Amino acid sequence: MAIVIKEVTDRKGLRKFVRFPNDLYKDNKYFVPQIVSMDMDTLSPEKNRAFEVCEGKYWLAMDASGKVVGRIAGIINHKYNKKVGQKICRFGWIDFIESQEVATGLLATVEEYARSKGMDIVEGPVGFLEFDVAGVLVEGFDQIPTAYGKYNDPYYEPMILHDGYTKSTDFVEYRITVPDNIERYIRLGEVVGQRYGLSQGHFKNKKELVRNYVDGIFSVLNTCYAPLHGFSELSPAQCEDLKDQFISNLRLDFVSVVVDKDDKVVGFGITLPSLSKALQKAKGSLFPFGFIHILKALRKNDTIDALLIAVLPEYQDKGVNSMIFSKIGQGMIDNGIKYVESTRELEDNHSVQNIWGRFEHKLHKRARVYIKNL
After folding, report:
1. Alpha-carbon separation of residue 260 from 199, 222, 310, 320 (angstroms)
2. What are the pLDDT digits (tens) for 219-248?
3. Confidence class for position 249, pLDDT limits 50, 70, 90
4. pLDDT value at position 138?
5. Which domains does the chain have, with CATH numbers?
6. Among 25, 45, 82, 332, which one is most buried in terms of CB atoms within 10 A?
7. How many other C-beta atoms can be found within 10 angstroms of the C-beta atom of residue 86?
């Protein structure tokens, strides 16, 4: 197949870039389309403040007829590279038809870009920040991803390995069955709070949550996520972007903020009703009816996605996770939730996985990040 790799240089090309996987997988019942307008914002320097510390380029692979057959992004996160003392170029947003020529062409383009920027390593798929979708699906092809995951066909991994890449790390996802005796864990959370002088933060609405606790939540997040692969400290502007992205969809029943006697945040958990099936119905667009499917999923659901959980180091191993689960657990009882989907977590993040170990759970999806020395 004769292909041409073209850099994306305008909004029209960016829209093609964003829409490509929605077209590639339009007949796949496990694929969850992303909202095109939101992905456009993520990839636009004027909209995404990750570009404070990142730079990047995007490319499309075209066949002889001009049809898009693949896409890839090349990203350099200067802040993360400084943190780890390495010269890493990331690749992300990679999708391609079942063609080794296309896969090789896309990866070679990023490698050339990396060399031109003086980088020594190419790693991916990862995004600008830790909260962008990362990894190639290698297990769980018969499962619907969470709204914060990604589907791909099985041919991705062998074609990436063909070009000299090896495993860097894996992300895993679990499906947890809500236990019948959830009240037991609620009581345990109450005992932990009394023992250590901790309590649930009080917020009647999202406005109070933002005003009283969001800055503390991001401070805990930056502290606890600092050692994780691919994470660089979030700036105030990047935190604002995340607020805009998540706050509007939150259900307060599924949010827990644990505070000390001075109302300082020491831990938190944020979950969200599953949007996967709603996004499938939306087909990549909020309008005219996509937002209606999302609103329905937020109000009535039997599954929640676990987005974020963190506890300050000095409070870890003291049962604070039980307090977080007790608050969200009561929300699960009140709303008839039967299942929890963990979003992608690093395979060696045992502190989070130990939480799921107490319940009936199944590891049912795995995504892989690859690395290559130039």
Report:
1. 7, 18, 15, 11
2. 999 999 998 888 888 999 898 888 887 888
3. confident
4. 98
5. 3-172 (3.40.630.30), 179-337 (3.40.630)
6. 332
7. 12
Do 33 and 279 form a contact (C-beta atoms < 8 A)? yes
- Block residue for tokens 């606790």: 213
CA nearest 114: which of 137, 92, 136, 84?
92
> Can you read off the two tokens belonging to residue 217?
């939540």
What the block records as the tokens of 24 is 């590639």
Q: Which amino acid is at 252?
A: L
Distances in Å between the alpha carbon of 49 and those of 11, 39, 44, 342, 371? 18, 14, 9, 27, 26
Closest CA to 294 of 282, 302, 307, 303: 282
Q: Round to whole Å and give the CA distance between 129 and 148.
A: 13
**What is the reported pTM?**
0.93
Q: Find all residues with CB under 8 Å of 352, minimum gap 6, and list them.
A: 309, 342, 345
